[in-house]
Design brief:
alpha+beta; Glutaredoxin; Glutathione S-transferase Yfyf (Class Pi), Chain A, domain 2; 2 domains; four-stranded mixed sheet; 4 strands; globular; binds glutathione
Length: about 210
């Protein structure tokens, strides 16, 4: 018993947390709750997640929502040495936060999630082709931002080592590819580098069984 429980599989947001845990070499229990399935309606899950969202992460008495916050918590609490996942310099830490907020807002919430809500889930969120089209155009503009960051040949968003910023961004690239949104070649190569990591692959097999 580690006291660490991750609720959620089958989604890019849950994958961020699985991947972080695997990079940090931490043991944890997975509760295989998928979004929009009866597993979300059990008393057990409703008690843990009154907002009915995955991922949820429990670490002893601490319970956290929001994939970016969970990944950052894990990196701050357990990351060290080669598995630091966060820069030590405060300015670089701020840069890492900047990428996390950028990805969560500009690529996830206001682009890909709009496409999902109004394209894939019209019965819940309404059929809105104009919103889907405009979110696609917005995504195409915003994805140029991380592409430009990698233009100097760096392997990761913050330079020469993996950080939480990469763990937050990569699932959005997977999502965009699945939704046939334009992902520049440089970011496709970056995504492939991330996907070649053993921790990514272990996390993937747990999150997408
Ligand atoms: N901003 C949240 C988003 C969480 C979220 O929307 N999760 C989806 C699955 S990926 C969910 O639980 N959806 C259920 C619903 O909205 O009813 C995060 O990054 O953790």
């Amino acid at each position: 018993m580690t006291g660490r429980i991750l609720w959620g599989i089958g989604s890019g947001r849950a994958f961020r947390v699985h991947w972080t845990l695997q990079e940090l070499g931490l043991e944890y229990e997975t509760k295989p709750v998928r979004t929009r399935t009866p597993a979300m309606d059990t008393d057990e899950f409703r008690e843990v997640s009154p907002r009915k969202k995955i991922p949820v992460f429990e670490d002893g008495s601490l319970k956290l929502f929001e994939s970016c916050a969970i990944a950052n918590y894990l990196a701050r609490t357990y990351g060290e040495g080669t598995a630091a996942l966060l820069p030590s310099d405060p300015g670089e830490q701020a840069r890492c936060d900047e990428w996390c907020y950028f990805t969560a807002m500009e690529l996830d919430a206001t682009s890909l999630y709009v496409i999902r809500r109004h394209g894939d889930l019209p019965e819940t969120y309404g059929d809105a082709p104009i919103a889907v089209e405009s979110a696609g155009e917005y995504f195409a503009r915003q994805i140029a931002v991380p592409e430009a960051e990698l233009a100097d040949g760096r392997l990761f968003l913050l330079g020469d080592r993996l950080t939480v910023a990469d763990i937050v961004l990569t699932p959005c690239l997977n999502w965009a590819i699945r939704y046939e949104q334009p992902v520049p070649d440089r970011l496709l190569a970056y995504r492939d580098r991330m996907a070649a990591r053993p921790a990514y692959q272990t996390a993937y097999s747990i999150c997408y069984p």
